[in-house]
From TrEMBL:
This is Uncharacterized protein. Residues 120-148, 163-188 form the Apple domain. One of its GO terms (molecular function) is peptidyl-prolyl cis-trans isomerase activity. The gene is PLEST002190. Residues 227-354 form the PPIase cyclophilin-type domain. It comes from Pleodorina starrii. Transmembrane segments: none annotated.
Length: 375
C-alpha cells in the first residue's frame, strides 16, 4: 500500500470518526437514555450505532444511521488492514540491503574489511563447512571468517598460529533461491590472494575476502595523492611518506575504508590571513593521529602548501601553511603538499565569526566539510 494511499486513508478515517462523534453527541442530546456512560473504542461506538439503527423511529433515521455506521466500519477495516499488511517485497528487500550494508560498514570501521562481491561464489578449500555453519547475514559470515583467523592467532584451532585459516567467506542469503542452503556460511582458504577477476554472474551466493593484518592495504600503498572534496571544489594533496610514513599509512587506511563515502568528521574550521587554514580529519573507526616521534626530521623551512599536524601533536587536527615560514621548528609533522593553492586562498577570504579581541583565533562563520579519496 502506497504512502499516498495510507495518508488519504488516515485523513478519511479521521474525518469519518469526527463526524461519527458529532453524530453521537447530537443523538445523545436528543435521547440521553441511549448514550453509554463510556465510549471505550470505535468498536463499542459501532455497536452503539447498530443498536440505534434497530431502534430508529423513522425509515429516514434508519437509513442515515446505517450509512454512517457502514462508512465507519469500512474505514476501520481499511485502517486495520494497513496496520497488519506486510510491507511490499521491494521495500523489504531494500531495507534488508540497507541494514546489511550498515553492518558491513560497521565491521569496516572496526578493522575488518569484508571486500564483498555480491551475486558471486568464490572458490577455495573449505575450512568450515557451511552445511553445519549458519549465519544470519553476510556481515555475520564475514565476521566469522575474521574470528577464525583470530582464533588461530590466539593459539587455537588444530595447529595454533600455523593453522590453515579462513580468508574467503561465502554466504547464501537469498531465501527464495537458496532453499535448504539458506544462511549457509562457508569459510574457505585460498593459498594465493588477491583473487583473480571474477566473471560476471548472478549467483545466489555472496562472497568476500578477509586479508590478514594490513595486507588489504597493499594496493593503496602505490597511491600518491589524497584529494579533499569540498562543495567549493577539490584540493589535491601530494602525500609525503618520506616525512611522515606512519601518518600517510593511517590516512590511506581511512580513505580506503571510506571508499568514497562521507567522512563524518572531516572539516575546515579556522583561517588566519597570511598564516594558515586549519581543519580536522576524523571519522568513527578511523583515527589518523600518530606521534611526532619516531619520524624523520622535518624541513627547516616550512614552505607554502605544506599540510601538517597542528599544535606539535600527531593529529587529527591539521593546518595548511600559506606562506614560507622558518619559525615553526621541528615539532610539526608534515604529511602532504598542495601545489595548487587556489581553493585554499579562496577559503581564507570566506566570512568569519566576530572576535571579542583582535588576538583571538579566527574561525569560519560556516565550517566547510569535505570527503577524502586516494589516487
Amino acid at each position: 500500500m502506497s504512502f499516498i494511499r495510507l495518508s488519504f486513508m488516515s485523513v478519511t478515517f479521521g474525518t469519518i470518526a469526527l463526524l461519527v462523534f458529532a453524530f453521537v453527541h447530537f443523538k445523545s442530546s436528543c435521547r440521553p437514555h441511549s448514550a453509554p456512560a463510556h465510549l471505550t473504542d470505535l468498536d463499542s461506538l459501532l455497536d452503539l450505532m447498530h443498536e440505534w439503527e434497530r431502534h430508529s423511529e423513522t425509515e429516514a433515521e434508519t437509513r442515515s444511521v446505517r450509512r454512517v455506521a457502514s462508512e465507519l466500519a469500512t474505514a476501520m477495516a481499511d485502517a486495520r488492514a494497513a496496520q497488519t499488511s506486510p510491507p511490499p517485497a521491494s521495500l523489504t528487500a531494500s531495507n534488508e540491503l540497507s541494514t546489511e550494508q550498515a553492518a558491513l560498514r560497521a565491521l569496516s570501521l572496526s578493522g575488518t574489511q569484508c571486500h564483498v562481491a555480491w551475486h558471486t561464489e568464490h572458490w577455495g578449500d573449505p575450512v568450515v563447512w557451511g552445511s553445519a555453519h549458519h549465519a544470519r547475514s553476510a556481515a555475520e559470515c564475514c565476521a566469522a571468517c575474521a574470528s577464525h583467523q583470530q582464533a588461530a592467532a590466539r593459539g587455537g584451532l588444530d595447529k595454533g598460529a600455523n593453522s590453515t585459516t579462513c580468508n574467503v567467506w561465502v554466504f547464501c542469503g537469498d531465501a527464495a533461491r537458496c532453499g535448504q542452503r539458506y544462511q549457509e556460511c562457508w569459510l574457505k582458504n585460498l593459498a594465493t590472494l588477491p583473487l583473480p577477476a571474477q566473471p560476471g554472474a548472478n549467483s545466489m551466493w555472496t562472497s568476500g575476502v578477509v586479508y590478514p593484518g594490513d595486507e588489504w592495504l597493499k594496493p593503496y600503498a602505490q597511491m600518491k595523492a589524497l584529494t579533499m572534496h569540498f562543495t567549493l571544489g577539490k584540493v589535491l594533496v601530494e602525500l609525503l611518506p618520506d616525512l611522515a610514513p606512519r601518518s600517510v599509512h593511517e590516512l590511506r587506511r581511512l580513505a580506503a575504508t571510506l571508499a568514497g563515502g562521507e567522512c563524518d568528521g572531516c572539516k575546515v574550521y579556522r583561517v588566519e590571513t597570511n598564516f594558515l587554514v586549519q581543519g580536522v580529519i576524523s571519522h568513527p573507526g578511523g583515527y589518523v593521529g600518530t606521534p611526532r616521534q619516531p619520524n624523520p626530521q622535518q624541513k627547516e623551512v616550512m614552505e607554502r602548501g605544506l599540510v601538517c599536524w597542528a599544535g606539535c601533536a600527531g593529529g587529527p587536527d591539521f593546518f595548511v601553511n600559506l606562506v614560507d615560514n622558518a619559525g615553526f621548528g621541528d615539532c610539526h609533522l608534515c604529511w602532504g603538499l598542495i601545489q595548487d593553492m587556489a581553493l585554499m586562498d579562496r577559503i581564507v577570504n570566506l566570512p568569519t565569526r566576530p572576535k571579542a579581541k583582535a588576538n583571538e583565533m579566527t574561525f569560519l562563520a560556516q565550517e566547510l566539510r569535505f570527503n577524502i579519496t586516494l589516487s
